[in-house]
Amino acid sequence: MKITIFGLGLIGGSVARDLKERKFADYIYGVETNPENAGIALKMKIVDEIVGTAEGIDNADLIIITTPVDATISILPKILDRVTTQTVTDMGSTKERIVERVKLHKNRKNFVAGHPMAGTEFSGPAASLSGLFEKKTTILCNIEDSNEEAIGIVRKMYAVLNMNVVEMSATSHDVHVAYVSHISHISSFALALTVMDIEKDEKNIFNLASGGFESTVRLAKSSADTWTPIFMQNNNNVLTALNNYIDKLQELKIFIKEHRVAEMHGVIKKSNRIREILNK
Amino acid sequence: MKITIFGLGLIGGSVARDLKERKFADYIYGVETNPENAGIALKMKIVDEIVGTAEGIDNADLIIITTPVDATISILPKILDRVTTQTVTDMGSTKERIVERVKLHKNRKNFVAGHPMAGTEFSGPAASLSGLFEKKTTILCNIEDSNEEAIGIVRKMYAVLNMNVVEMSATSHDVHVAYVSHISHISSFALALTVMDIEKDEKNIFNLASGGFESTVRLAKSSADTWTPIFMQNNNNVLTALNNYIDKLQELKIFIKEHRVAEMHGVIKKSNRIREILNK
């Protein structure tokens, strides 16, 4: 199968590696607007060839969009304008705005909206990893709007990536990821900013980071290009989630302020339940 | 050297392992009020013998307190009441209340206040690890109130644990850890609670956790017995840090709400600086 990947970053690069190594792809075209990333992807043999948009579309059996979600909104309709029999899928962290954008497109059925839940805090093709998706979950949204053939090809691709496929509406997807992924990132960005504002001596941050800070702040290393449009596209759900999170922080603050030891102990115990949930 | 460890949890157990393996300790006595943990520590040969408080004090050259910080406040004066030439140190995550408690004690000079910045989200002697402290930083506080001999023994112990020693006042320590350690934990507890409140279907949390949630929420697995008294003892600094953190979240919220893309991008870029700071 010939595959074109739009956007050769962490996700696009990692997908390319696995699909090539596992022989799902015979030949991979890359479309990449950043010449530096295009050069790295070619040099690392992540893709076989860098091509322009039209050639990328025309030559492929399967087109995978792994750009930041603002770029996806803008290029997806253009790709669908030009496809004939090709399957198109995306891997963006928001889904509602993306499916909304092409809802009435004549080739909507060629498109399958997806979101593999995998990543690291790094970005760019040099950060791509083999096996990044292994045994994790991917979400396919609104598949009633896609044709059988396209769904079949995308499912096959995720089987090759060894991912567990879950189906969901784009609306539900965006609510769930606001809580489970998007506010995790915001809490981490805010924590990094707070600590850097206060701790003028960076040596102290470095020295004391093993007290828990390092893991909570890991996501604060994530790309601004990737995350800014995610928050903007999923703004309503993210704002609701963020309000709930701030309310919870205020509640804990009151327990500390009023020395309500038993209640503080109780909520920490309750939060410990996350261990069982994550080990399920 | 004969060592007595009060409190055989994650930290006490891990200290015992390294000091024994590295021949700094010839014999380790454990004092532990929880009979289950005492049994595990003995069975795992983390300590050579479980003894009562008086015997633990009388038999030791060095006494290490690794209990939750509320227990430290209560047993430290009793231990100092009874010591003659023994060195006493603690490893608690708060320092100001602890040094304040024994400020006027006749044997204050036998005590060295310490805080090795190391740990995991797990607790109890079964969670103890060899090499937990390796190449991390430990903080010694108000050492002008300790005698030379005691400081020498504690420094030697941290050299054996292969830790980098930093000196600081107890007051500064408590401010720094409020930012770099304590609010990390609060942000994580609050995130776990928020997500569990909203996501009634735990299967969704589990499926979507690799979207960043898993690492941000790791600390939410931490012990309520350990963390409740830390927050209560360091309440003023923690409340200030928490207010700053909530202000930062409110700022990000406004950027999202008002679709201020450039400003959101700018603060994420700024928070990315944490990568360089942590890699120093």
Write structural notes for this entry.
The structure is a homodimer of 280-residue chains. Chain A has an eight-stranded mixed β-sheet with strand order 3-2-1-4-5-6-7-8, with helices on both faces. Chain A has 13 helices and eight strands. Helices cover 54% and strands 13% of the residues of chain A. Chain A has two domains: 2-168, NAD(P)-binding Rossmann-like Domain (Rossmann fold, 3-Layer(aba) Sandwich), CATH 3.40.50.720; 173-279, 6-phosphogluconate dehydrogenase C-terminal fold (Orthogonal Bundle). In chain A, helix 7 (170-198) crosses helix 11. The mean pLDDT of chain A is 95. Chains A and B meet through helix 7, helix 8, helix 9, helix 10 and helix 11 of A and helix 7, helix 8, helix 9, helix 10 and helix 11 of B.
- β-strand percent of chain A reads 5-15%
How is the CATH topology of the largest domain in chain A named? Rossmann fold
The helix-and-strand class of chain A reads: alpha/beta
- Straight-line N-to-C gap of chain A: 36 Å
| Relative helix content of chain A | 40-55%
Stretches with pLDDT under 50, minimum 5 residues of chain A: none
Q: What order do the strands of the largest sheet of chain A run in, or round the barrel if closed?
A: 3-2-1-4-5-6-7-8
Please tell me the overall pLDDT of chain A: 95
Short description:
The structure is a homodimer of 280-residue chains. Chain A is an alpha/beta fold.
